[in-house]
Design brief:
309 residues, Arc Repressor Mutant, subunit A, 3 domains, 40% helix
């Protein structure tokens, strides 16, 4: 078999964890499927699969090979589609994205059916974490990143600013009162957010008219390290939070949260689409990135605060 055919067989075996099922799916004898994987292992000089009588499992090198094979085969499909489909309309293959849970839940996933309806052969993998992923090592095509990018060698496409809101639950305000000035914060509690538990909280942040950022120390019994817990703690009445408007707009509109101290906001966070520099970025990745910029950019404009307009 050709190297491409061997990769196609190996990919199906990896996905189905079975030589028998992969051979049936490809219309090949089981022996041919086994031979194709052996041939690929010989060419690469490494074992790709652990084989037992009961199961087939990827080795560490096999996992890396599988990820790369999927991308290479999708690139081949892109190339063929240039000539087989007028205007290059067909997108095929996987696009892997990372973003915050709030962006995924509130913005991207609700719009995803439209993208997949237009490109039914497209596969989208969405990672939602609060940690900073290694875009290249973990195989992401692009990342939606809030705050400073900071990674040398990556391409950054600015999308706009995430404007902030100070929020509290109605139950918290009923019990503790509504803060009217920064001096009132001494009588209130803050839900502390840190990237790593054990790190020091920055306190309540404000940005003056001159752009200077100030940090106000506040009491608070709860510290969290992800956005979902941060929001849940506020809803539970455990203290104030400072969150992007985009993530709490619905809660504010429904009265589940209340905005306080609107004249004392934390500085807005830049939102950037980050991707690795590639000389020939695949068409499917370009299309998905343009789609992300469109759907997220629309929400950023809707979420702009009056003070920042």
């Amino acid at each position: 078999m050709s190297p491409i055919e061997c990769m196609q067989v190996f990919t199906r075996v990896a996905e189905l964890a079975s030589f028998t099922q992969a051979a049936e799916a490809l219309g090949l004898p089981k022996a041919s499927a086994s031979l194709a994987v052996q041939q690929l292992e010989t060419q690469l000089g490494t074992r790709l699969l652990h084989r037992t009588t009961r199961r087939v499992q990827l080795t560490q090198d096999g996992q890396a090979c599988y990820e790369r094979c999927k991308d290479l085969l999708a690139e081949l499909d892109d190339f063929q589609a240039m000539f087989q489909h007028p205007g290059g309309a067909l997108l095929r293959g996987r696009v892997r994205i990372d973003m915050s849970t709030g962006l995924a839940r509130n913005v991207v996933i609700p719009q995803l059916p439209d993208l997949l309806q237009r490109h039914p052969a497209l596969e989208v993998e969405i990672s939602s974490t609060e940690r900073r992923v290694d875009l290249v090592r973990e195989g992401f095509d692009c990342v939606l990143r809030a705050g400073a990018v900071g990674d040398a060698g990556l391409v950054a496409r600015p999308l706009g600013l995430l404007h902030m809101a100070n929020c509290a639950s109605p139950a918290y305000l009923a019990a503790m009162g509504t803060p009217r000035t920064l001096a009132d914060l001494a009588q209130h509690r803050l839900v502390h957010y840190v990237g790593t538990l054990g790190a020091r909280s920055g306190g309540f942040e404000t940005q003056g008219r001159d752009g200077a950022v100030a940090h106000h120390a506040m009491a608070g019994a709860v510290t969290v390290n992800n956005a979902e817990a941060y929001q849940a703690a506020c809803l539970a009445g455990l203290g104030l939070i400072q969150a992007p408007h985009l993530g709490v707009d619905d809660l504010l509109a429904n009265g589940l949260l209340v905005e306080v101290l609107p004249e004392h906001l934390a500085p807005p966070m830049p939102l950037t689409l980050v991707y690795a520099h590639r000389r020939n970025l695949s068409r499917r990745v370009r299309v998905v990135m343009d789609w992300l910029a469109e759907v997220v950019g629309a929400r950023l404009m809707l979420s702009e605060s009056p003070q920042s307009a």
